Amino acid sequence: MSAFPEFSFITTADEVATAFSQEIKGRNVLITGTSLNGIGFETARVIAKHANLVIITGYNDGRLKLSEEAIKKDVPTANIRRLTLDLASLAGVRKAAAEVNSYSEPIHVLIHNAAATIGPFKVTTDGLESQIGTDHVGPFLLTKLLVSKLLAATTPSYTPRVVFVSSGAHAFGQGVNFDTIGRPNPETYSSMGAYFEAKSANILTAIELSKRSKGAINAYSLHPGIIFTNINQKEEAIPAMQAFDILGRDGLPNEEKFQWKTIPQGAATTVAAAFDPRISDKPGSYLDDSKIANEAVASHSSDPVIAERLWTVTEKIIGEKFTF
């Protein structure tokens, strides 16, 4: 194996993709949540320079077209396919998965980047709290429905990957609340608490997916960093961000309290989790600054007993068993 560079806080997604260009070459990658001015878009853009196919998703096809045009303008050789996907609807997830399953190509990497807006209490079409529904339950079902597409990418030298964009902020929460995960309670709801819970669920799912697949799929979770993207610029998200001093009174990043990454820096760890061959023997790991950082995971988000329980509870919510 050739020597790869060491990455840091300031490493950009472009630098990571360039380092792993041979690993990306020929791959088909599906990335959720690829709107302009977000880390999913930047992830798609840099991967598209080297990949065989990049499938970009969103619930709004008009916005998706803008992302496709922007990527193709920057990368004329990019092979981009748009997929309408509403993660806040289990029926919507099933419809999108059926479309992907009709494609001739296997899926080498599935990247769960999309997230619901942090804001006032809302429920999905299936009656789930918006963040846990969009950030955890929808992605869980999508992975389950696409597992045969992922396994079809397997070769003697390649194991398909599933990547969950989590957050270091998971550690500020209490982990997954099994009392409300399927029965949301507006009385006890906290916008940031729901965010922490959803991000804990991402880490736990990566751990359990890696375990249950018995080496057939390598799953990873990650902290992208604190980044000023489209999701924390939404009007409904600003009060919660200000309450935690993430944004100042002016709605702009609080640079005195936090060290911020640019969008290119924020997308770097996703690309590393998707393609770094050095982590192939460490499935279920959590990354930060494009490196494994399992020591940064809170105990409530790394406990294998909790991971197994979450898997079983989520199967009940979607009404389907997720087996291999």
From TrEMBL:
The keyword Oxidoreductase applies. One of its GO terms (molecular function) is oxidoreductase activity. It holds the Pfam family adh_short. InterPro entries: NAD(P)-bd_dom_sf, SDR_fam. The keyword Oxidoreductase applies. Keywords: Oxidoreductase. Belongs to the short-chain dehydrogenases/reductases (SDR) family. This is Short-chain dehydrogenase/reductase family protein. It comes from Mycena venus.
